[in-house]
Design brief:
Order of helices and strands: HEHEHEHEHEHEEHEEHEHEHEEEEEEE
Cofactor: pyridoxal 5'-phosphate
CATH class of the largest domain: Alpha Beta
Protein name: ornithine decarboxylase
Strand content: 15-25%
Structural class: alpha/beta
Helix content: 25-40%
Number of helices: 10
Radius of gyration: 22 Å
CATH topology of the largest domain: TIM Barrel
CATH architecture of the largest domain: Alpha-Beta Barrel
Distance between the termini: 15 Å
Pathway: Amine and polyamine biosynthesis; putrescine biosynthesis via L-ornithine pathway; putrescine from L-ornithine: step 1/1
Family: Belongs to the Orn/Lys/Arg decarboxylase class-II family.
GO molecular function: ornithine decarboxylase activity
């Protein structure tokens, strides 16, 4: 996953300290793969995955739309060249003044999951299109997202009915099957719920037009994942199964699947030690940890591939940790990570598959450590 362009950049530039390097060629290839896999779905890149201006400009030039979580992300997408019609305010939790600001900027597509959020939008973005997020079980995902966002399908009917009564455009339904979703059937279960909401409201004369099928498309870490084409086939089959010949407009929101495998973090071994003379598990401390951008190692949910200059020799399990004075800054301990016995202090380690959710999760200056530097090539 470390492309030759990334390796050449690191060899020639020799950046100091931990840094992320993203190869735009990989991002372009990923976008084209999604476009080919789901040709009838609009692609709304999830800006939160990696909001680097170079990535946003590339995707805008390719025709991508954008899923945003804040006014700041809306402005980033606009600055990258996206028209307001290509931007969705996809966060279901918004301040009323942010709804008003988004409306001023021309945004007309908003996510909701309760009547209270509908009321805000009716007051500050009259006539806007809204889609209601439905809860999913997240089964099969490495990072389930099932509780904070969304509502039960029966409540979604109430929410969209309320939106219609307030003069909003009850536009559709959304769901998210969970991040790093490897179960191809996950969309089938969620689309069944979406179709039920469509059918229930149709009986009342309210015609929904759009299903936002969210993200969840994975990137490869230590295990192989299905290709974009496999997801496309499974999703299209599920759409035909539940909607027949009346398939609505569809949206997908890839984030991790768009940029995850495009990035590599360069790090350095700061210390290797043991906790007792007879301890057979080494502790390997890197110059980057949870607070430097590897927050998704929380609960060891995401296990990144590590490449070291000592690969090929005998390995043994070790605990991997970051450099900060915080006991939570441990990456892998429940399931120790096999690394070469020859690994030594000062060795450079590449952490692959880190193009998504690293720079955005990095703290500003916890313990005085600089935020993660990023280079987009």
């Amino acid at each position: 996953m470390a492309t030759q362009r990334i390796l050449d950049f690191l060899a020639t530039r020799r950046p100091d300290g931990p840094c992320l390097v993203v190869d735009l060629d990989v991002v372009r290839d990923n976008y084209l793969a999604f476009e080919k896999a789901l040709p009838d779905s609009r692609i709304f890149y999830a800006v939160k995955a990696n909001p680097a201006p170079e990535i946003l400009r590339l995707l805008a030039s390719l025709g991508s739309s954008f899923d945003t979580a804040s006014v700041a992300e809306i402005e980033m997408a606009l600055d990258a060249g996206a028209a307001p019609a290509r931007i969705s305010y996809g966060n279901t939790i918004k301040k009323e003044r942010d709804v008003a600001r988004a409306h001023e900027l021309g945004i007309r597509l908003f996510a909701v999951d309760c009547v209270e959020e509908v009321d805000k939008i009716a007051r500050r973005a009259p006539g806007a299109r809204v889609f209601c997020r439905v809860l999913t079980d997240g089964a099969g995902a490495e990072w389930p997202l099932s509780r904070k966002f969304g509502c039960a399908p029966a409540m979604a009917v109430d929410v969209l009915r309320h939106a219609k009564s307030l003069g909003l455009d009850a536009h559709g339904v959304s769901f998210h099957v969970g991040s790093q979703q490897t179960d191809l059937d996950a969309w089938d279960r969620a689309l069944a719920d979406a179709q039920w909401v469509f059918g229930t409201l149709a009986e009342e004369g309210i015609t929904l037009k759009m299903v936002n099928m969210g993200g969840g498309f994975p990137t490869r870490y230590l295990r192989d994942v299905p290709a974009a084409q496999a997801y496309g086939q499974a999703i299209f089959s599920a759409l035909r199964k539940h909607f027949g010949n009346r398939i609505p407009e569809t949206i997908i929101e890839p984030g991790r699947g768009m940029v995850g495998n495009a990035g590599v973090i360069k790090s350095e071994v700061v210390l290797i030690s043991r906790k007792a003379e007879n301890d057979n598990v080494r502790w390997v401390y890197l110059d980057i940890g949870k607070f430097g951008g590897l927050a998704e190692t929380m609960d060891e949910a995401i296990r990144y591939p590590f490449v070291t200059p000592r690969d090929g020799g005998e390995t043994a399990p070790c605990v991997l940790a970051g450099p900060t004075c915080d006991s939570a800054d441990v990456l892998y301990e429940k399931t120790p990570y096999p690394l070469p016995l020859a690994l030594t202090i000062g060795d450079e380690v590449l952490i692959e598959g880190t193009g998504a959710y690293t720079t955005t999760y990095a703290s500003v200056a916890f313990n005085g450590f600089e935020p993660l530097k990023a280079y987009v090539i």
